[in-house]
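Fill-in record for ATP-dependent DNA helicase.
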Amino acid sequence: MSDDEIKQLCLMDIDKILHSYGKTLKDYPPMPLATEVDNSLLTERVIREELNFNRDDLKKNASDMLAIATPEQRYAFDKIVTAVYCDEEGFFFVYGHGGTGKTFLWNLMSAEICSRGDIVLNVASSGIASLLLPNGRTAHSRFKIPLNITEDSVCNIKPGSPQAMLLLRAKLIIWDEAPMVNRYCYEALAKCLGDIMRCSPTYSKDLPFGGKVVVLGGDFRQILPIIPRGSRQDIVHSTVNSSYL
């Protein structure tokens, strides 16, 4: 990437931050304005950020963690990693109450898959939980899920965009604290991936998420989706296990 391309990407980031405060670069005349940048450069940068790790260190970490994993963690690890690399059907839910080692499992799978030079997208339903995951983000931030979610909502990711290419490139999506959000969030992601995965050789219209391997995890003893003035029936209807997925 040339110095001018790096400069333009930097200016675009500054302009994006200013937009969130109701300002633009035009409000500061001495500052140069960003010009259009080739979409492939944006895609390259997004993917490079997710591949910014030391594969040798991750391979050692995965080996050390696998040596101390419990039989249940090892079973889940083998099933999910096999689904990732054997193009099998891959939609999983890992259930366990707090302290049973779900976060340990997410870090183990991430280290193993990333050590092979592949991408894992780690998200969580809450910001605090996302900090415990490698390159963790909230699900709403990563997948551009609308805040006012409805049955007809879709993720604000256009096919061919850098975010869409990242989703296409990712080998695994891990979503922690899954029971906390409305089921329409997962269904919005499923519809989005169904469109994005059409150009992938692993695409299947009959599989959830277009055939992408997705792991949800969490504890139903914790907070369920919050429905303002909702009845018990409304809350149960909004949970992930009420979804067609």
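KEY FINDING: The mean pLDDT is 87.
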